[in-house]
Write a structure and sequence with these properties.
Helix 1 packs antiparallel against helix 2. The chain is elongated. It is 47% helix and 26% strand. Strands 1, 2, 3, 4, 5, 6 and 7 form a 7-stranded antiparallel beta sheet that branches. It has one domain. It is of the alpha+beta class.
């Protein structure tokens, strides 16, 4: 029997955290370079860092799963175009919290980590995933 595909919404909380982290890192680059190079000379390098960080953040956002499939003994994550990003059983390294789950999926010798924020799925789906992660941690 096939498990239903559950849709994941893009998480506003994770996107805000990535943007805030990029902002802090950009400020750190500027405050590190400005005393050595001067304020105006540090600005182009800082903007280049911000642009490259923004491109990496956009690529990361596109790579996030859009659908998950929860079976009795496995979890699978799929992209918007239907490509399987990860499929296997949950590993004991999975972490859970009140608003974020880091699900580690074992795929043979490889492991893939899937981040699921509470605002990306329905509350009952998030609880189900948290229970599965908690029970996987007991193995």
């Amino acid at each position: 029997m096939l498990a239903p595909l559950l849709s994941l919404r893009p998480s506003l909380a994770l996107q805000l955290l990535v943007a805030a982290g990029l902002g802090v890192a950009t400020a750190a680059v500027y405050t590190t370079l400005a005393p050595w190079l001067g304020g105006w000379q540090a600005l182009p390098l800082t903007l280049a860092f911000l642009a490259s960080g923004g491109l990496v953040a956009a690529a990361w956002r596109r790579k996030q799963p859009a659908f998950i499939e929860i079976g009795s003994d496995y979890l699978a994550a799929y992209s918007r175009d239907g490509a399987c990003l990860a499929a296997g059983r949950l590993a004991g390294a999975s972490q859970w919290g009140t608003w974020l789950l880091a699900l580690v999926v074992e795929q043979g010798a490889r492991r893939a980590t899937i981040l699921v924020a509470a605002d990306a799925v329905a509350a009952d789906t998030f609880r189900t995933l948290a229970v599965r992660a908690h029970s996987a941690a007991g193995r």
